[in-house]
Request: fold
Amino acid sequence: MVELHILLFFMIIGAIIAIEAKDLLSAVVAVGAAGLALSIAFLVLKAPDLAITQLVVEILCLIILIRATLKVDLPFSTSGRWLFNTLAVFVFLIIFLAFGYFALKELPSFGSPIMRVSQFYLEKAKELTGATNLVGSVILNFRAYDTLGEATVLFTAVIGVMAIMRRKGRKKVTDQEEPDEL
Amino acid sequence: MITYFLCLVLFAVGLYAVLRKRNLIKIIIGIVICEYAVNLFLVLFGYRMNNRSPIYDPDQVITKMVDPLPQALVLTSIVIGLATTALVVGIAIRIYEKYGTFDITKIRKLRG
Amino acid sequence: MNYNSPHKGMTLIVKTITRITVGLILLYGIYITLHGHVSPGGGFAGGVIIALSFIHLMLAFGKEEALRRLPKPLVSLFESLGAILFFTIAILGFVGGYFFLDWLNKGEPFKLFSAGSILLSNIAIAIKVSFGLFGIFLVLVLLKFTPKK
Reply:
């Protein structure tokens, strides 16, 4: 799996560039590069559904992030305790990675998962549901409760954005409250 | 093993941005990178070496395929992640409109 | 209406290309959605592609033209309609016995009209996802940047 390691290194480099870039627009573009590498990694891992979805979602995510960065420049300023804060964060990250390293040793090795439930899906899905795309049959037939929950979360997120961004109703409140404050 | 660890390093890079950066857009970028790492880890966990993707062919007899269950759950998680990213961007735009800055240390003053 | 007025949207070249490509992108999204049970794709990916075709139209022609074709209450209505449609498919399982039961005819594999309720659920999810994401984009674009300071 050399190509997977190359893609992962590419994603890590893209993420570091995105975080450390001074210009916000180039940072957003670097995030887009990391996301497209993730799409190719899904394709290498034999998940074509995820590759299609990640590709189109990445484009929309890029448009939304560029909308937020328009006409905004960031002044770079360092506070007084810059060295202490950076050292504290790095010590925390090193401890996190060390614990992660010892925990990952206990997992089954890469390429040989434990498939107790999934073996049933692989053998019986075609007769039970009639669908030949197993991912589609899992999300909409075997585990449709999950999809109903996810649809509810998506609906709630859309309603939340519309409630935050609306303009009607906010002005009435400010008109009533501003004379009190002044 | 080394693949899992590289995925964890990617998560740590996103976590560094969330913990250390002072610009709100950089924090959102860190959250997006963390989300990529988690999705990739779940799909890596269900990969079986030298097998085919979980889609039947008309003339197929063997059933040696990759695990379809993590892929199905990650598929919904990607779209949910896009909606929550849009929600966070909306909150950030509102904060910029109220305080005139993206710097989180200046927001702390509780003005207005 | 005068679509080619130079004051709104992008240049004439972009508008001409957009008029050709936007139908193809919409058609590809519908194809991905309808064939979600026999090939890679499904409701989520197809819905995002349909939303991208609307956004493509909006970016090229300006917000007035896009809002004339798809006003904001209509987008909100269709998004709720997708959610209700998916829930209705779940409730209809009670005809056969319990929640989310697929009592439709399974049909023959590898054909378009097969796999029972998976096709209907894919259509419902595609409607919901596409209009939901387009609504998010519409709301983010319509807001004017007016910092108080």
Q: What stands out?
A: The radius of gyration of chain A is 23 Å. Residues 82-104 of chain A form the longest helix (23 residues). Confidence is low (pLDDT under 50) at residues 176-182 of chain A.
